[in-house]
Amino acid sequence: MKPIIRTFTALLGIGLLISSCRSGDEDIVPSQGVSADMGSTSFYLLNEGNWGSNKSTIDYYDASTHTYHRNIYAEANPETSGELGDMGNDLQIYDGKLWAVINNSHLVEVMDAATAQHITQFTIPNCRYLAFEGRHAYVTSFAGPAGVDPNAQRGYVARIDLDLMTITDTCLVGYQPEGLVVSGDLLYVANSGGYRAPDYDYTVSVIDLENFCVVDTINVAPNLHLIEQDSHGYLWVTSRGDYGAIAPKTYVIDPLTRTVCDSLNLAISGMALAGDSIYAYSSVWDYTTGENTFGYHLIDTRTREVISESFITDITDIRTPYGIAVSPTTREIYVTDAGDYVNPGYLHSFTPEGNRKVKVRTGDVPSDIAFILP
C-alpha cells in the first residue's frame, strides 16, 4: 500500500475554495487536529452517529506526528454531496481501500486507504458487516426495512467482485444476519433474527464460496451477533440471548465438524483477537435495576478460559464502552466510549500492559477502528 500522506491544513484550504459545491447546511465541516500520543500504529475510526441524524463520520490518527484528526471525510471529499451517511456499522481496510458500512443509509462506501478520498459506493439495504477473501468482498444485509416485524424477511450476503467493483451475486441466509467470517473455502454467517423478537434466529449459515450457496446450518443460540476465527481455526460466536430467560453467552464452533464444541457463560459485546488472546468487553442491561453492567475480559483461546477480568487499568471515566481494538503489531489497546449516545464520545488508549496512555474526543458514538499496516 502506498505511504500515508496527510496534509489536512492544505486539504482544508482546497475545501474552502470548493465549498460552493455544497449549499446551506451542506457546507464542509473542517476537520480538527489535536496532539495526542495514541500509539505507534496509524488508524481510522468510524463514528456511528445517532439514528436518523446523518452524523456518521471518520477520524484519523497519524502515528508519525501523534496527531488525532476528527471528521476528515467531508474535507477529503469536498465535491461529494453531504456527509458520510447515517449509522456507521463496520470499518475495514483491504487491498489499499478503506471500506465503511453505513447501515441506515443502505450503502457501503469505498475510499482510498491513503487519502480517505471517495472511490465508489454500493447500495445494499440495511447492510451490516464486511468480510474479504481473495478478490471478493462479502457484506451481510438485513434485506428489509428497519423495525420489529414477525414477518420480517430473511437476509442475504452480497458478493462484490473487487476487480470489476460490482455486486455479482447474493446468497440468502437466515434472519437479520450480522457478523461473518471466512474459514478456508467457507463463509460463516451469524444470524440474529433481531427484527423477529421474541422469535429470534438461532443459526449460523455456512456458505460454500465456490458455488456461493448455503451448504449447512449450525444451530447455536438465540440472537447471534459477532463471529471471529482464532489462531487455531476455531470460530467464536456471541449470542445476545433473548433479554429475558436466556442469558447472553459465547460459543465455540469446530469448523471441521461444524458443531458447537464449547461455550462460556460470558456476555461479549465486542472483541478483538490478537495471538492466542481475545480482548473483550461486555455491556449487559439489567431490566430489574435499569442499569448497564460493564466488564473487561481477557480470554486464552488455547484453554478457552477467562484469565483476567481487568486487562486495562483506570476505567473509571469510561462511561459506555462501545468498541475495542488491539494493534496487531504493537498490542496497544483501544476502547471507544459512546458516552450518552447523543454528544461526542471518546477514544481511550492503553499500553499492551493495560496502562492508560491518553484519551481524545471523537465524533458521536465511536465504534470501529481500522489499523493502517505496512
Distance between the termini: 7 Å
Total beta strands: 29
Radius of gyration: 20 Å
> Which spans of ≥5 residues are poorly predicted at pLDDT below 50?
1-28
Number of helices: 2
**DSSP strand (E) fraction?**
over 45%
Strand order of the largest sheet: 1-4-3-2-29
Query: What's the rounded overall pLDDT mean?
Result: 90
Helical fraction equals: under 10%
Structural class estimated from helices and strands: mainly beta
Main sheet specs: 5 strands, antiparallel
Name the shape in a single word. globular
Task: Explain what you see.
- This protein has two helices and 29 strands.
- The protein is mostly beta strands and 374 residues long.
- A five-stranded antiparallel sheet has the order 1-4-3-2-29, with no helix packed on it. Strands 5-6-7-8 form a four-stranded antiparallel sheet, with no helix packed on it. The protein has a four-stranded antiparallel sheet with strand order 9-10-11-12, with no helix packed on it.
- The longest helix is centred in the first third of the chain and has 11 residues.
- The chain starts with 7 loop residues before the first helix and ends with a strand.
